[in-house]
């Protein structure tokens, strides 16, 4: 049985000059074909980027070629899916230097033997992504360093996203004691002790279990155990209609304040899929709401970090919650909600600014006017605090090349000196019309990630101020909040798209495959915390237990988007 879709087969082209031009110029399907040579089976076009199918035994050589020859050094997501005649793994590649250089690598395998080569030796971030693909869909990956379930218990029967999965079958999960994770490393004779942190523990910032092996007082090995609140968000979105039923879900992926940013991720993806325009006025409203949401998220991250690292509940944590409340009040006026905002709509937003507009503008400007003094307080309490400095400077080191290997984004990547921000580098909304800067720190430690978030609050406030000025002077007859969107959206069958936004915690992406109906055939969420959390062992091994807690807190993970 053929595994190829009906696409144009590639032609042979090994022209060195053409390959050199591909490394510098825009990417297209022919450039991918030239870079991959005989490994390419066929080329195709996804809505957002060119795509190429490759042999399942050529994954590592193909991804290495695309990384080294074409500069696609960011594996942002891996999507697994099952068709009636085959399985597919889709590797979504970008460039950290220019995320508009994108490509999709499609790896088809037969249903009778869904096995392909693992990408983990090329991109470390593929380890967790492929484990999830195996867990939920059933694709197996040769040469994977640790291919086992990641969201479901090891004793689970079947793969829930498989077409033949029996949802009525009961699952009996036996109890297994945790084994020493170093036992298979040949170091079981060392004086190690197993320490379980979580799953219910304030320092884990959610329902997560850290399985830590200690060698004396130092962390010899740490393994994040996730999946405790896996809520099937992707499957629920696959059952919802594009136009009306999916948008309420994204808020629930990040209850720390980033819900509006998540809504934008879905809106941007679905609008690209269905070719929907957004009025300029609505883009300004979206940008205003998104940056307020970013401040909301970072205030919680900074306050919780003070609690994690120096036990500061009475000052910094409560100050941060106080200032979050001011933003919550503004967003409640705008959206009508305090947690699950549901403000974005395909083609725009649900409604305009509250009346009277002048009172709303005054409320926002009052908050912005008082913010600089409050940020000085945070810096006095945190970055100038000798105890916090001792706990965070030169701990939790994440070098830039390691951060890229794990697909780290957001403040985690920018704290490692990686100047990567989709608001600037892959512009959407109204960001490219505004004057603002990307916050980057080069020290790669826990302290640097804290500094990035504090600086980003300042930049978000700067963006909000500009949006308020624009909205205040916007002509009354040009305040279009939503384009004319069809009541029922049915993208063409076999149309595929991956789009992302710069959420508070990093790159939040969504892959959608349409099947000609008004609901997605595949809906895949790329949560930034998923990839960022995978890098925790690199930051914590060799450190002490308090350093582990500081490193985990510096990632600012939210388990709603890790487990999804």
Automatic annotation (TrEMBL):
Residues 1-10 have a biased composition (Basic and acidic residues). It comes from Haloferax chudinovii. GO terms for molecular function: catalytic activity. Its main location: membrane. NDH-1 is composed of 13 different subunits. Subunits NuoB, CD, E, F, and G constitute the peripheral sector of the complex. Coiled coil: none annotated. It is found in: Cell membrane. It catalyses: a quinone + NADH + 5 H(+)(in) = a quinol + NAD(+) + 4 H(+)(out). In the C-terminal section; belongs to the complex I 49 kDa subunit family. PROSITE patterns: COMPLEX1_30K. Keywords: Cell membrane, Membrane, Multifunctional enzyme, NAD, Transport. Residues 1-26 are annotated as: Disordered. It is a peripheral membrane protein. This is NADH-quinone oxidoreductase subunit D. Residues 312-564 form the NADH-quinone oxidoreductase subunit D domain. Residues 17-26 have a biased composition (Low complexity). GO terms for cellular component: plasma membrane. SUPFAM superfamilies: HydB/Nqo4-like, Nqo5-like. Residues 52-169 form the NADH:ubiquinone oxidoreductase 30kDa subunit domain.
């Amino acid at each position: 049985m053929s595994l190829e879709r009906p696409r144009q087969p590639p032609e042979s082209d090994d022209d060195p000059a053409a390959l050199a031009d591909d490394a510098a110029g825009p990417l297209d399907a022919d450039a991918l074909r030239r870079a991959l040579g005989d490994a390419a089976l066929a080329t195709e076009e996804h809505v957002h980027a060119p795509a190429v199918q490759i042999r399942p035994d050529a994954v590592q050589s193909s991804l290495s070629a695309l990384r080294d020859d074409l500069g696609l050094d960011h594996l942002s997501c891996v999507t697994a899916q099952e068709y009636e005649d085959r399985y597919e793994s889709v590797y979504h590649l970008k460039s950290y230097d220019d995320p508009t250089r994108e490509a999709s690598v499609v790896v088809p395998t037969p249903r009778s033997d869904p096995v392909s080569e693992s990408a983990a030796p090329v991109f470390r971030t593929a380890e967790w992504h492929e484990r999830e693909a195996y867990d939920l869909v059933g694709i197996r990956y040769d040469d994977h360093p640790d291919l086992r379930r990641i969201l479901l218990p090891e004793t689970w029967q079947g793969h829930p996203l498989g077409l033949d999965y029996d949802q009525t079958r009961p699952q009996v999960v036996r109890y297994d004691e945790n084994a020493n994770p170093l036992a298979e490393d040949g170091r079981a004779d060392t004086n190690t002790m197993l320490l379980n942190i979580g799953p219910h523990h304030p320092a884990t910032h959610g329902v997560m279990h850290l399985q830590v092996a200690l060698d004396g007082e130092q962390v010899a090995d740490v393994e994040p155990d996730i999946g405790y609140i896996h809520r099937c968000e992707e499957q629920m979105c696959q059952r919802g209609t594009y136009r009306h039923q999916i948008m309420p879900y994204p808020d629930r992926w990040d209850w720390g304040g980033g819900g509006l940013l998540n809504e934008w991720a879905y809106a941007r993806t679905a609008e690209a899929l269905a070719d929907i325009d957004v009025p300029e006025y609505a883009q300004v409203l979206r940008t205003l709401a998104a940056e307020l949401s970013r401040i909301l998220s970072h205030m919680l991250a900074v306050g919780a970090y003070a609690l994690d690292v120096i036990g500061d509940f009475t000052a910094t944590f409560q100050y941060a919650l106080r200032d979050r409340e001011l933003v919550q009040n503004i967003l409640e006026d705008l959206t009508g909600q305090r947690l699950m905002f549901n403000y974005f709509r395909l083609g725009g937003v649900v409604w305009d600014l509250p009346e009277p507009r002048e009172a709303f503008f005054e409320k926002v400007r009052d908050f912005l006017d008082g913010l600089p003094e409050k940020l000085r307080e945070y810096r006095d309490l945190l970055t100038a605090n000798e105890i916090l400095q001792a706990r965070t400077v030169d701990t939790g080191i994440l070098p830039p090349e390691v951060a890229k290997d794990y697909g780290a984004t957001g403040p985690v990547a920018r704290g490692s000196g990686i100047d990567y921000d989709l608001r600037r580098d892959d512009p959407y909304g109204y960001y490219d019309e505004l004057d603002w800067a990307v916050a980057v720190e080069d020290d790669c430690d826990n302290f640097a990630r804290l500094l990035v978030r504090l600086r980003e609050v300042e930049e978000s406030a700067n963006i909000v101020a500009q949006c308020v000025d624009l909205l205040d002077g916007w002509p009354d007859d040009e305040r279009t909040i939503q384009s004319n969107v069809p009541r029922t959206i049915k993208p063409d069958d076999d149309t595929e798209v991956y789009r992302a936004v710069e959420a508070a915690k990093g790159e939040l992406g969504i892959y959608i495959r349409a099947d000609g109906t008004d609901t997605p055939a595949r809906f895949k969420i790329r949560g930034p915390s998923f990839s960022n959390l995978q890098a925790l062992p690199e930051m914590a091994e060799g450190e002490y237990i308090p350093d582990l807690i500081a490193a985990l807190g510096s990632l600012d993970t939210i388990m709603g988007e890790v487990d999804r």
